[in-house]
Every structure is written in structure tokens, then in C-alpha cells.
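Saturday, quiet lab. Running sequence design on the C-alpha cells for the scaffold JK sent over.
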């Protein structure tokens, strides 16, 4: 799925969630609030989930894009995403997080990787068809093996601990972004709460419903 379509789906889900929350909050506000400015309070309660959730989403999306550009880590929206390995070498995914491929300077090196391990400039892994490989990023040299025993013997000086590709991606993404995405989340939440507060103050304080 393309980025635009994924965002569109997100917006629909947020809209449905906002409708549900606004109905519940609106009814609670109607029954619990005093008669003074009750209409304004109910109106503010109905609108608040839409403004709050959409602000949270768009500020978070914008912040994630900024982090993605700075840290060279794809935020994972759309049909492809990636994490850096070292230098100009990247681990890339298309659609499924279960299999990946290595790309170095725009050239695909090996695909359908299911398990992987990185030790400095050396990449070790297992492919979808149960084959094994080692890849030297500096030398741009790929060696394939029939089974894990051959790989272990060939790389006898290295401690091999291959992990699932999705787990590796998650670890590398966290390593690359650090606390950046947490900061984005906090800023998004602050922006969302601020918008809702200003909306309530505007509606309850300035609008006059008869």
C-alpha cells in the first residue's frame, strides 16, 4: 500500500474512534454538567475528540518524518521501509516485515532474508529457502553457504546468534532513533491537549447558545 492510502486509512480509523468518543463524552457532559452553558459544554465535548486525536496524529506524523530524515530511518508508513546498517548499506523491507533484503549504494545484494546478525562490517544471515550467507560491507563481498554448519565453520572466530529479521529491524530502529520518537510523542500529546484546552475555552467562554 502507498503512503497516501495508509494515511487515508489512519484518518478513517481516527474519525470512527472520534465519533465513538464524542458520543460517550457528549452524553456524559449533558447529564453531569449544570444547566449554565450546558449546550456550549456539550458542543465542546463533541468536538474535542476530533481536534485532539487529529492534532496528535498530524503532529506525530510530522515529527516522525523529521526524525526519519535526520536519522535515516524510515518511519514504516507505506509499502516499504528500511533501517541503516553501516555507511551506505541498508536493510530494506517491502510489504512484509518477515523478509528483507540488503541494499548497498542502491544495489540489491541479497533478498528474502529471514534471520540476520551484524558484527561491525560483517552481516550474517539466513534466507527464506534455508540458505545461509555472509556479507562483507567494506569489500562488498557476498558468500553463500548450504547450511548453518558451513557458515559456522567458515566464520569460526565469530559468535553467531542469528535473530528474526523483524526483531533485528526493531532493535536497529530503536538504536538509530534513540529517544527522538519518545520526544515526538510527548510534543504531540502537549500539542493535542493545548488544542483541546483552547477549543473548550473558545466555545464555553465566547459562544452564546440560546
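Result came back. Writing it out in full:
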Amino acid at each position: 500500500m502507498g503512503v497516501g492510502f495508509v494515511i487515508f486509512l489512519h484518518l478513517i480509523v481516527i474519525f470512527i474512534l472520534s465519533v465513538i468518543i464524542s458520543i460517550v463524552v457528549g452524553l456524559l457532559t449533558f447529564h453531569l454538567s449544570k444547566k449554565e452553558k450546558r449546550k456550549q459544554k456539550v458542543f465542546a465535548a463533541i468536538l474535542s475528540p476530533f481536534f485532539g486525536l487529529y492534532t496528535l496524529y498530524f503532529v506525530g506524523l510530522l515529527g516522525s518524518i523529521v526524525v526519519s530524515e535526520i536519522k535515516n530511518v524510515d518511519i514504516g508508513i507505506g509499502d516499504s521501509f528500511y533501517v541503516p546498517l553501516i555507511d551506505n548499506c541498508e536493510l530494506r523491507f517491502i510489504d512484509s516485515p518477515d523478509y528483507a533484503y540488503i541494499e548497498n549504494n542502491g544495489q540489491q545484494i541479497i533478498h528474502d532474508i529471514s534471520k540476520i546478525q551484524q558484527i561491525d562490517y560483517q552481516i550474517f544471515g539466513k534466507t527464506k529457502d534455508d540458505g545461509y550467507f555472509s556479507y562483507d560491507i567494506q569489500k562488498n563481498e557476498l558468500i553463500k553457504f548450504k547450511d548453518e554448519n558451513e557458515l559456522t565453520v567458515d566464520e569460526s572466530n565469530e559468535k553467531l546468534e542469528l535473530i528474526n529479521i523483524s526483531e533485528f529491524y526493531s532493535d536497529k530502529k530503536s538504536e538509530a532513533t534513540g529517544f527522538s520518537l519518545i520526544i515526538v510523542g510527548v510534543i504531540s500529546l502537549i500539542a493535542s491537549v493545548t488544542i483541546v484546552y483552547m477549543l473548550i475555552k473558545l466555545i464555553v467562554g465566547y459562544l452564546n447558545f440560546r
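Notes for JK: The chain has a mean pLDDT of 85. The first strand starts at residue 80 and ends at 86. Ask whether to fix the surface positions before the next round.
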